Amino acid sequence: MKPRPKLATAERGTRFGSLLVLGLLAPIAGAASGLLGALFRLALAEADRWRATLITAAQHLGLWGLLLVVLGCALSVGAAAWLVRRYSPYASGSGIPHVEAVLNEEVPAAPPALIPVKFVGGVLAIGAGLALGREGPTVQMGAAIAHLVGKVFRRNWADCRVLLAAGAGAGLATAFNAPIAGAVFVLEELVRRFEAHIAIAALGASAAAIAVARAFLGEAPDFAVKPLAYVGVQMWPFVIVLGAVAGVAGTLYNLTLLRTLAAADRLGRWPVEARAAMISAAVGALAWFLPALVGGGDDITQRMLSGGAPLTLLALAFLLRFGLGAVSYAAATPGGLFAPILVLGAQIGLFFGTLCAQTFPGADLDPTAFAGSVWQRSLPGSFNLPLLESCSSSR
Fold this sequence. Notes:
By secondary structure, the protein is an all-alpha fold. The chain has two domains: 20-217, Clc chloride channel (Orthogonal Bundle), CATH 1.10.3080.10; 223-393, Orthogonal Bundle (Clc chloride channel), CATH 1.10.3080. The protein contains 15 helices and two strands. The protein has helices spanning 9-58, 63-87, 96-103, 114-127, 135-152, 157-176, 179-190, 196-217, 236-265, 272-289, 298-306, 311-329, 338-359, 367-377, 385-389; strands at residues 223-225, 391-393. Strands 1-2 form a two-stranded parallel sheet. Helix 1 (9-58) runs parallel beside helix 8 (196-217). It is globular, with a radius of gyration of 22 Å. It starts with 8 loop residues before the first helix and ends with a strand.
């Protein structure tokens, strides 16, 4: 076996200098991403409170109140779609595929204008009740602000690329309060191979992001799960069946999402703002009758993980959220797919667990365990580390 050739002194110095600079800049980019992500989460929480207050107040106005809610939602999402079309088309949708394309050098990095458009547009769209997640915007905004840090410090593209990936991981870490998952997400989902520079920068950025975010959001995990008993071998057959059911549901959801996007594209003669407003008007009408089922879905996920919902209610909620998620994404406004999928995973798991517990009372099955198992993996089999880290148990 031939020995590895030694690097020239100048090349070794360049690589060491670059890694040292990245080690200093990555926490700066991560802290900025954490601050931005924390403010985004706080703004979404405030928008949810505004929506709930508006619906509660409008209930006393009868039909006029319904029209007020529908109009308010339509105007809010229409404004978000206009911001995206007018100032930053890259801000549409989740943004994670765009970050992957930038890292693969398929498209140029988004300009800084993406950050305010993604922030404001996401608050308007998700706050109006669309079933979209916060993780997509925080990942894309984190990547954009990290790339901006690299440009400010006049780094070359190779270093800016590393910082961009690290900033994306910091954004994910902030979205789910999961620092290790931010770095793993970068390596597993974005670059899909191990690169030492990216791994070190991502860990530093995620750590800094969480330190800043927790100063604003607190240190409590995003979701709480009651202590669960050890899963014995008698539960394995049920888990295998549940995995197959979740896989089928994930496939159907992906197909539904793609066909919904294709149907929206066939309305190409309509302005994007009109399509978004029309979708949000329907969501506003749903929010009038079932306000607890709209929005990103964190509250719904927590209720599912706490267990205790009737089977008929679970089935209805699953069907409504299944369609709502696909339709919401077709509005072409800022917002991710992952958080709404968590809702579906928790719902189908709790439904399956409750059904099995009632059918086999002697098996001593805990429905909450089923809800947590599907929720931690999500329906389409996306990355699950953010979920595992962002969940707490009182054990």
